[in-house]
Amino acid sequence: MRVLKSSITKKAVRSVKKITRSTAMVMYRKQLSRFHKNKAGNNIIITQRNVVIGTDDTWFNAQEIDRNPAWVQVPDASYVWSSRDLGAEVAVVSKQFTLSSRRRVRNASLLLSVDNYAIVLINGRFVVYDTPQATVSFFNPGRTFDVRRFLRRGQNDIVIIAFNFGGRRTIDNPAGVAARLSIRQS
């Protein structure tokens, strides 16, 4: 299957400047459109009370990569990067899941470890909107966000746009993203 690169992604790669929220939303919508067009991944249906969704190769456009020794180990998640181009400066990965319509989300957190910075959207709402930077604490120890208010009963989606500061992903300039979404329902 031949996949064309998005002009929006190319524009973001050309300059490692902070991308606008509107550009991030365009990237988000294009990712969801590709996801639905390709019927990619498996939409997981969650009925149990406690669930963990971690990045792995079941995420759309994600390929598992080796964890750099400097990166924190994220339990129940693997480090991933763009399956289209492992050397890319930008990786856009996503996952769709369905929460039970009979249960209420009590707690939900997102543990994010990214080398170097990211934009994360859940259901079209910004959770993380980093400025371009190379901050060690973003990948060790990583960051945790309360995401309960971003989730809803029924279908949900998470899109992570990860950036490698300083150019393409190489051995000398590693890049990766690992995320673990922990959800507790009533």
UniProtKB/TrEMBL annotation:
InterPro entries: Galactose-bd-like_sf. SUPFAM superfamilies: Galactose-binding domain-like. It comes from the Bacteria. This is Glycosyl hydrolases family 2 sugar binding domain-containing protein.
